[in-house]
Design brief:
Pfam families: Fe_hyd_lg_C (PF02906), Fe_hyd_SSU (PF02256). Its main location: nucleus. Residues 388-444 form the Iron hydrogenase small subunit domain. The chain is α/β, with parallel strands linked by helices. The protein folds into 2 domains: 57-136 and 196-263, Rossmann fold, CATH 3.40.50.1780; 140-193 and 288-436, Fe-only Hydrogenase (Larger Subunit), Chain L, domain 3 (3-Layer(aba) Sandwich), CATH 3.40.950.10. Helix content is 38%, strand content 11%. It contains 16 helices and 9 strands. Strand 6 and strand 7 form a beta hairpin. Helix 6 crosses helix 8.
Length: 454
């Protein structure tokens, strides 16, 4: 969920969750102008932890482009396919994030697998051609993060800014780091692309080639738990391999898609989720190892313990420190702590982590950072009740459903290994760097940018 970047916010109200204090995002420069639908919506209910309309973060051009990522744009393409000449038709592909499936399972009162099939059947009844899940993209992101951490750890004595490595899969956190924190922090961001970025490239590059399609013939939609993914779709380097097309054309939150389903009177038959490989057999539903996230901390910790110290760690057990959203796990060897990892979820934990890092006091080698308190399942696109607060009953239900999804280590995916061989030319370093890694240019903001007054 996005973070509000105003140095001072008005209309603050005390709420059950300190991070959810309401703010007024209307800027003086924009106050008298006629606002688009997006900004009207954003101004109606904005929280410190999910502000999308702040001028300090979203430019006018970005705001206009984000406003187009909604159900209207989705139906525009669906309707064009029904009306226009077949030569102008788009192939519609929808990729669903694993953190969205528990939401639909809870809402439909179904298992995750059955909810996935119903969701797929509904989308295809609308006119969507392919429905994928993004787990394979998360596998790539985790694997590249593991390799990068080991490299950074080994080079730490030569490069003081190599550690701690901060995860970069959460778009709200990445935008905050780039737009507010700037150059003191961005060198610590992991360069592995996020699952959404990688999925965009898999669909527009690999899958397009498999189907003998031009990438511009594919309209790719992501369904995810938070609004930040709409902003992430605007990142320039998402389409680095194609140089002309962005990997994701539209992002719908889980809640937006559910609203479409509730307003539809279509007769829906369940359908199996597609794979990028044209397999007839339906892929099983898997998740990374993480209670409410993409599982970077657990997977990277195990990999680092084995690669750096020859230790096999079966269970990664974190302990909560200052609160349940700040947790730590360590590895000791010969009485010395050799790995110290942390998870920092939510704005206040992020602020505390960054302050220590900037003062040179961070004790950590790796920090998994997520903008949402409680992790990805709590994204505002699916866990928010009508009054703007988190729907705690729904969230507990989603957490229980998510915990029951089987965990699969990304190393064991045969499809991932096949893609390294075929799509990435035998894991050619240049090709891997181009396809799976990014960079984080920053404005080099002043240190005072951390001193935000709430």
């Amino acid at each position: 969920m996005p973070l509000c970047f105003f140095k001072e916010c008005s209309k603050k109200t005390k709420t059950e969750d300190q991070e959810d204090a309401l703010v007024d995002v209307t800027s003086p420069a924009r106050g008298k102008e006629e606002k688009g639908e997006f900004h009207k919506l954003a101004d109606a209910k904005i929280f410190l932890s999910d502000c999308l309309a702040c001028d300090s973060c979203v430019t006018a051009e970005e705001g206009a482009r984000v406003s187009q990522q909604n159900a209207k744009d989705f139906f525009r393409v669906l309707n064009l396919n029904k009306k226009c000449d077949t030569s102008k038709h788009k192939v519609l592909a929808v990729s669903v994030c694993p953190q969205s499936l528990p939401y639909f399972a809870a809402k439909f009162n179904l298992s995750v697998t059955d909810a996935s099939r119903r969701l797929c059947g509904f989308l295809k009844s609308l006119g969507v051609h392919y429905v994928f899940d993004t787990t394979i993209a998360a596998d790539f992101s985790i694997l590249e993060s593991q390799k990068e951490f080991v490299r950074r750890y080994q080079q730490h004595s030569e490069d003081e800014r190599a550690l701690p490595m901060l995860t970069s899969a959460c778009p709200g956190w990445v935008r905050y780091a780039e737009r507010v924190l700037g150059s003191p922090i961005t060198p610590h961001l992991c360069t592995a692309k996020s699952p959404q970025q990688i999925m965009g490239l898999l669909v527009k590059d690999y899958f397009a080639r498999q189907q003998n399609l031009s990438p511009d013939k594919i309209f790719h939609v992501i369904v995810g738990p938070c609004y930040d993914k709409k902003l992430e779709a605007l990142r320039e380097d998402v389409h680095a391999a194609s140089h002309t097309l962005q990997g994701v054309d539209c992002v719908l939150t889980s809640g937006e898609l559910l609203q479409i389903m509730e307003q539809s009177d279509l007769s829906v038959k369940e359908a199996a989720v597609d794979t990028l490989f044209g397999d007839l057999k339906e892929a099983a539903v898997w998740r990374p190892d993480g209670a409410s996230s993409d599982g970077y901390l657990a997977h990277v910790f195990r990999h680092a313990a084995k690669e750096l110290f020859g230790e096999d760690v079966e269970n990664v057990t974190c302990r909560a420190l200052r609160n349940k959203d700040f947790q730590e796990v360590t590895l000791e060897k010969d009485g010395e702590v050799v790995l110290r990892f942390a998870a920092a979820y939510g704005f206040w934990n992020i602020q505390n982590t960054i302050r220590k890092l900037r003062r040179g006091e961070s004790p950590y080698h790796f920090v998994e950072v997520l903008a949402c308190p409680g992790g990805c399942l709590r994204g505002r696109g699916q866990a928010q009740a009508e009054d703007g607060r988190v729907d705690k009953a729904l969230l507990r239900q989603m957490e229980g459903i998510y915990a029951e999804i089987p965990v699969r280590p990304p190393e064991t995916s045969e499809h991932v290994q096949m893609l390294y061989r075929e799509w990435l030319h035998g894991a050619n370093p240049h090709r891997v760097q181009e396809a799976l890694h990014t960079s984080f240019p920053s404005p080099g903001l002043a240190a005072s940018s951390l001193d935000i007054k709430w």
